[in-house]
Task: structure prediction
Amino acid sequence: MKPKISGRASSIPPSETLALAARAKALRAEGRNVIDFSVGEPDFVTPLPALRAAQTAIDKRETKYPPNNGTPELRNAIARRIKLDFDREVDPARVIVSNGAKQTLFNLVQVLVDPGDEVLLAAPYWVSYPAMVSLAGGITKPIETRASEDFRLHPADVANAIGPRTKLLILNSPQNPTGAVYPPEDVDAIVEICLERGVTLVSDEMYSFLVFGDAKHRSVLETRDPRVDESVVFVSGVSKTYAMTGFRIGYAYGPKEIVDACSRFQSHSTSGAAGISQRAAASALTECDDDAARMRDQFAVRCKVAKERFRSIPHLKVPEAKGAFYVFPDFSHYYGKKIEGELVKGSADLSRVLLDKANVACVPGAAFGADAHLRISYALDVKELEEGISRIARALAGAKP
Ligand SMILES: Cc1ncc(COP(=O)(O)O)c(C=O)c1O
Result:
């Protein structure tokens, strides 16, 4: 008998970013010289103090079940980090650690969203948000942002999108996939709107440290309205800032009721995150500022190179991107044309042709709700970055009507 998969699970597509990264890796394993712009992880080595902390945890045989909400050491380190970064006193009892911020967000959506509830997201959005919402029975309501405005999320558009069934807004700045960093006054205004209108706000600040040039990250925790304590949740992790994607440590700080609900949810799904990883994460948050700054400075250089190079390709529109490690050019001029002999109708076709014919992996914008674009991750060294962009330029130069 064929197993019958639940309707809930069947309705969820696999993560397109992970699928593409896996395909690029497989082609590389076959000996193809693929340049991979699809990855969502820093290419740097994890800072040494964090690696040593993990090693020490192993040497000390710290291999038993860790506390469900995270070790006191790590929760204290998170509270101290928030104080340092955003000048906010944080009660470590209101911090919960999970297996990556992906699980943190998944838990939050599960404990906040009932079937039929609406969740607001700026579109383009990170691929996993709509899947999380739909697994909770919720309805994603995208708020369109425009490439011509560098994907700014207007507070007025947020206010207009709120309806009687709106439960939650997920905010993400610096943003995946666009690299947009929201102006501080917009973040403050959006927080105020959510507080006034009774909408819970989850702020995914995974990339808060990766901002470049004159851009400044504004955290929701910097908003001084005391009501923030009642309905705003801050989410972050160590994956991107400290090149620790494989350690799987993310966390949330928020109202006690929400953190307690996440704790109950997590206690029946995964239990606490790996103790060895928690040791490494605590070290990262306290001992690795210099390493983080060094990696950020390299990302800043790559960001500049990526924007300059893509802007030199005819007919591409390249919105400003000042954070995370993504640029999100508009390739739609080339849709309806033949590239390497193949008709390109949209971002999925273009991504396939670039991978098969030009050996460059980029994620189709359709995965993020923006078919005109491809997401380019510049988490690779400058030489590779330049070579990859040259390959794309050559492929596009041969486009025929
Ligand atoms: C916007 C955003 N949020 C959250 C995450 C989750 O990160 P992790 O689960 O590695 O902590 C990612 C990772 O790609 C991301 O891009």
